[in-house]
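As agreed, record passed on underneath.
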Amino acid sequence: MKFLLSTLVLLASCLAIFAENKNSKVFESQIEDALECFRGLLINGVPEYDFPSFNPLVVPEGSVDLSELGIEGLSGRVAVEDLYIAGLTDFQYSNIKGTIGLIPPRYIFQGTINFPLTTISTKYDLDVQYADPVDVRVYGAGDFGLEAVNFSIDIDATVTVLGGINISNLDVWVSLAGLNSFTLTGYFNDEELSAQIVETVLADPSGLVADYAQTVNDLVTELVTDLVNNGGGSDDGFLSDILSQCI
């Protein structure tokens, strides 16, 4: 969870640089410097905050109470065992652009972050409920894994500066070039269903990601906007420390 929050808050907070640097080239260069700083933190970890290295990430076991994310309607628990994630430190960035709007005073950031090859494998046990707009429950226990090719995130954000830094618009669009492999067992505790899902996903992985891109955008936008504008979530000092090092 700290990886998600720190990454999103870092990207959003980079926009605050514009308040001091009206030159877009300076702004764009400092954002690239901040991303490289964060790459170093991902590689080395931050031991004082129990933030592990992601080069690669290896977690013998762990769990997340989804109600703590603060997303309305979302609850339940996700537990993992022998979690392995590789490729997150190899991200690439491109199309970094910054522009200034005068009425109202605002700063606009656009950019793309791409993960050339991402590998995930784990044993999982989940029971998740989502009650918006209708009640949905997802559960099961088994194995999950994938090797994703060129998972990309396109970011378009507008930040206003009157009365403090606030996100007035945020779009986060995900895309995927393909999958080298995909494994799933135990979904709804149904092996036949799991096999059908694997077949469907491997048939058109990029199309499936495109189908759910709007849903991902809505969830991420809500989480990050609340975090930046309203101070949503909790901070044990970790996020503040990351920002002080990289911004």
